[in-house]
Amino acid sequence: MSSNEETISEFIGLTMSSESIAKQYLENHNWDLQEAVESYFMEPEASSSSAQPAAASSSTSTNSAAQSSKKQKSSSAASSKFKSFSDIRENDDDDDEENNLFTGGEKSGLQVENPDDVKRRNDPLGLVQDLLKKAERQANEPDSREPVQEVKNAFVGTGHKLGSVENEVDSVQIGDSASKKKTPQRVNRTITFWKEGFQVDEGQLYRYDDPKNAEYLKILNSGRAPLALLNVEMFQEVDVQVIKKMDEEFKPPKRKFGGFIGKGQRLGSPVPGEPLSASPEVVEQTEESANVEPENKEDAALAEEESVGDAPVQIRLSNGKRIVHKFNSTDSVEVVFDFVKQNTEDSGRSWFLAFAFPLKKIEDTTQTIKEAGLINSVVVQRWS
């Protein structure tokens, strides 16, 4: 059986329509089963009129229309997935049903639609009143559905054979991949009808004056579950509880306070945008270095140039000391390595420099301090 034939069979099972009608709706919606089924149920006049046979007289037309209406209600109730409204149409009183009027002679008949029924179908508040009446009648009836039983499935997945030196580890596929797809569980939804609109659980308000929301009410009133409104999947069962607060205005749900959401700073790392300040250890180190007389004028000039640099870098040595030194932003990264080398006590041991956070090794020494992003940064010395 091809995929199109399977789709036609599923459409017929859901709508109880003929094969030709199923094929027509599926072709019009590019063989999309969900859109085709929704389109079919959105046209109740067309589906009901196609199911009614031609009448020989006004009296026989009335009887056939009544029988057709009963068959349609029983078939839709059997295929419905949600209890709170699934059997509503079966339990309607005669006063709530739309009356089919007929006119004509002995051998011909013409069905005339009651204008009051059309007005009630298009009025959102009328739809809400009908829906609440049906839900109230349904609440007094016992639940005839079978209880949901949990099905414990066996393990389905990929296993591995234990290997050895000679044999490599093999992967073994266990079970059919198609069986991995689980059936959606039954869910509960609460619809609250307020003065100006309705609300699903604690979500947003759907106003009655919005035409899109009126379509949702029509679908609910027909005993079906709008997938987008109730946030359910195709063929998923859903229990709907209705709360009537038509005399109260909508009250937005209170905001739930959760945990902290944001960014944190690691302890010891510099605050972004704040200039680096020298610690007492650094001041002491700077004073000691200032008391040391340079060996020649070139070293003195270099020390003076570095002291007025525009690129402060905080250096954490392996012995625990911290030094804030101002380099020139145009100096190469190798100058920083040389400075650390001069202040390292154990010169015979290999070491490297890295950013403090995130920890990243500094390898390219040909870049300038500005290009390497070392300005106002924290650099740590680590033993190799």
TrEMBL record:
UniProt xrefs under Pfam families: SEP, UBA_4, UBX
InterPro entries in UniProt: NSFL1C_SEP_dom_sf, SEP_domain, UBA-like_sf, Ubiquitin-like_domsf, UBX_dom
One record GO biological process: autophagosome assembly
Compositionally biased intervals (Low complexity): 46-83
Domain called UBX: residue spans: 306-382
Domain of life according to the entry: Eukaryota
Gene3D superfamilies found in the cross-reference section: DNA helicase RuvA subunit, C-terminal domain, Phosphatidylinositol 3-kinase Catalytic Subunit, Chain A, domain 1, SEP domain
Region (Disordered): 42-123
Annotated SEP domain residues: 186-251
Residue ranges with Acidic residues bias: 90-99
GO cellular component terms attached to this protein's record: cytosol; nucleus
GO molecular function, one term: ubiquitin binding
Protein name as catalogued: Unnamed protein product
